[in-house]
Amino acid sequence: MTHHPGIVITGASGRMGQMLTRLVSDSDKVRLAGAVERAGHAWIGQDLGEAMGSAPLGVKVTDDPLEAFASAQAVLDFTAPEATLEFAELAAQARAVHVIGTTGMTEDQIARLAPAARHAVIIRAGNMSLGVNLLMQLTKKVARALDAEFDIEVVESHHRMKVDAPSGTALMLGEAAAEGRGVALGEVADRGRDGITGARTGGDIGFSAIRGGDVVGEHDVMFLGPGERIILRHVATDRAIFARGALKAALWGQDKAPGQYDMVDVLGL
Fold this sequence. Notes:
The chain is α/β, with parallel strands linked by helices.
């Protein structure tokens, strides 16, 4: 197993962190090389498997990411924007592939990944699933085919614990629609409606977010024209699809040149 790429999981105690741990531990293509949590977390110093309430995995949770990354070939990161920026710098020092599933990053934060990408592979996507990335390509194609007489709305639903809105996936879909229309999303996005807003501005791409229960993720891209509607939909029922996509990205990135990539590159779409 030692010749298999070593994987470090950041935010190891989170839902995605634990999902990634189970997937990596069960894989015959990679090995679990490390687990990172924030300083002061109760899991620090514990065996990751035991902290999760299962069998020991032989990997202790640490709050020193540089030490963990030094012996790894890839980092799977579904944490928070500022933490991700720190991890990007350290992963670049270790020349480890940095797979970023963190959402809620601003344009400025995304731009700050560029220095790290000069030294290592960064694969960043708001959603790692095959289905969503196919939906992006379909959204772009439909938006290109329909003129501005068709209004575009992106509606997303997630569990009550999600902290950012719109979701990273919704923004990816909005970007795809804007690209299809040949416009910049920042110039046409309508991300908040409340009160007397007036009539809808033609050409805008609207976003709506629903939060509740344990919804893994649902996304609709609606093209609403006179007398007809086209609705493209993706429903996720198991967040393991995101973990599988992240692991696929980590393996794909092993022989790639430094730079920034996304799941469209990984999946060859």
